[in-house]
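Lab meeting notes turned into a lecture example. A postdoc, R.K., suggested we walk through two folding results consecutively so the class can see how the record format repeats. The first protein's sequence and structure tokens come next.
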Amino acid sequence: VTFYARGARKDAIRSKGLRIESEYLGDFIVNPELVTDDAQEIGIMDYIFICVKNYSLQQVCEAIQPMISEDTKIVPIMNGVDAADKTRKYLGKGTILDALIYIASGSSEDFTIVQKGNYTRVFIGLKDPSSEEKEAIEEVNNLLTGAGIECIVEADMEATIWKKYVLNCAFNILTAYYRANTKDLRADSSRVQEFRVLLGEACRVGRKAGVKLPEVVEEEHMKHFLVNQSEDATSSLRRDMDAGRANELQTFSGYLLQLGKELGLVLPVTEYFYEKLSKGQRISN
């Protein structure tokens, strides 16, 4: 296993490995065979997992071209609904799967990965896969399950990706705006109602776009948020905004508003929080 990593993260992993503190899998340290930001040094890979923020995707795809052949299987595990399509456009070769992950996790200042909660699930698939693509899906599934990672192969990845995206468009936005975690949001009935409304607006866009979202998706997300979500879970959007870093606001509210406008939909609550967060206007608990 090779890590393509950059900057201070690369240096940290090189010097002390990648430390994982996980409520689900326990604490451990990974020492990869190679950590580098030189794709030529890595060479052609059998499998590549792209795990970056959306704003870095194009740059990373350009940088890793020397690692990819037509036989390489590529799995972008990212936020949003169009990461795989963008990856196909940027790379132009290899077999690129649709994928997503359900996980509550973040990176500490020393680049330790901290995971909260009793779940981590990866979903993979493709729409109308060819026989070669089905084989690639099976290979990636075997790779992940063999490593002890819960992997689920989905027939309708579009709906699966949108289902998570709907959740992100509520949870990530509210945790960022209120500088909050799950417990903070649950404690305020008005915020719980805002969560429900944001879920509904995102679902309206997805369904108008032809995505086959289950009718129960809003209630499933509400149950997860109110019952199953770890109390101290928050979002990467909140952490990035707290630290003054580049963030994925456009991936969530920005993209949703753009698509909603194209479909003739008005999303007043999504637009309210998008405008506030775009201007850096946030509330502290």
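The second example is placed directly after the first for contrast:
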Amino acid sequence: MECHNKYKYVVSMIRVAALLMLGSQALALAQTVNWQGPAGSTIKSVHYPKTEPEPFAPAVQMNTLSLQETSATAPYPVPPLAGFSPLVVITTSDKGGDDGIDLEHRLEFQYDGDPLTPAAEPNYIIGIYDSGAMVDLFAGNSVDILGLTGIYMSDTIFPLGGVGGELNGLLSYPVGIFAGSLNTIQQDGTIDLTQLVGHSNVSVVATPAIVCGNGESVTGVVGNPLIAFVKAIIRNDHIINVSHNGTMYSSPDVEILDVDAPSPSYSRSI
């Protein structure tokens, strides 16, 4: 009960402070509400200045608008309410260090090395460009497509954990990982290697198939071992739709650049 009253007091003080800042105008318009506040408290009314437009309805009513209706009326692109996954094409090469004790990865702003498979152009996957991933990871069939097998794999087990649980993967020997926009996919289904960037002399994690609770499967992830050293321009107003191996993919355009490369100029910024 003490905690309940304390939060009522805090909410009341916030309301009083807002009224003092707005002056006498703030008393002109009031809306009676019954909103749940923190720790079981209740907000009973909201006050608006005369110069403000009519207040929005509570969020539960706002959500009845469809995404299409919102996009049609908004003067700017509206991203999906659940967010989006920036997708990139990913392929590999055999480029490691110059000797067996070179432990530093190398940024690569063009494809370099020999493919781990007979050819890199048709042997690629579409994966997630994920700043929340601490490793570059490839799962299920992606391991074979990218050639992360045989002599390129060690027997070192790498335990992984996350919101979906835990599993063990295998570490590769140093290889090259290259990524680029879905726009690099050509009409014949191959990718243009000249548009890829990445890093070499880096070990990646290969795992068995990973299937999420919603039925989606993880193909691969380019994570912070690369992302921390480059700049990405993600154009949510430029959506790319492609079909690859019988699956449709949709993603904002992702351009990966040197951190010193100039950024484009935008009409809006945050």
